[in-house]
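Lecture notes, structural biology module. Today: joint structure prediction for complexes of two components.
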Amino acid sequence: MGPWGYISAAYLLAAIGLLAYQVRVRRRLKAARRALARMEGGGRP
Amino acid sequence: MTSGGSRLVIPLGVATGAALLTGLYTGLVGAPADAVQGEVQRIMYLHVPTVLSAYLAFTVVFVGSVGYLLTRREGWDILAHASAEIGVLFTALTIAAGAIWGKPTWGAWWTWDARITTTTILLLIYLGYLMLRAAVEDRARGARYAAVVGILGFLDIPVIHKSVEWWRTLHQPSSLARGAIDPVFQLPLMVNLAAFALLYAFLLAQRVGVGRLEAEILRRRLEE
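The predicted structure, tokenised, for the full assembly:
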């Protein structure tokens, strides 16, 4: 593998890791907002 | 109702995106290739910012942990927990990028070098921190135990920093701290350091928002 192969691998891995974490945090944020809204709505969906 | 979203998130996201794109351009296109290592040295513009952002994250864990133990205010604990998660991510990325850089330069993905080993210990300490938080059901007790780990774990950072001086290692000494880096490499590195510091702040603002909402949900469930 040439130098750009290693460079691409490093940057791609970082991009995937950071993006996966960002998606996970946004999902948790949405789930928590939904759960709180349900509580405030007296258990209504 | 708390929305868990910070007003900072959107402007931080825009600034982070712009800074990361600038960093990518300066590191991969604008900067010259290294005279000794060639093109592959460009991994430095990822590897160094991720490790310094991890140090920043664990410094915030340390401050949050001390703050929590002194005041028992939940906000400190939420901050420390959020920052630990991001610190673990950045440390894992540092080790991965280092391994990918190590193969063409040292001929090995991994070696029991002092800096690599102490950085891996840092990762394991804060993975333990996160596992401890997940394992202890009593939130206050878990926060107390985690705060102690967060403070003790931070002691590994000066060891990592000094490891290249205390032991014979393959890893090069800290060029930035010694001012031994040419300006043509230093400028793109600084741009990338700023970009990753912004990225850390962007992720932290969101993750703290999640922590606040989840704490509120738990509080309401306990009140029911």
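Point to remember: The radius of gyration of chain A is 19 Å.
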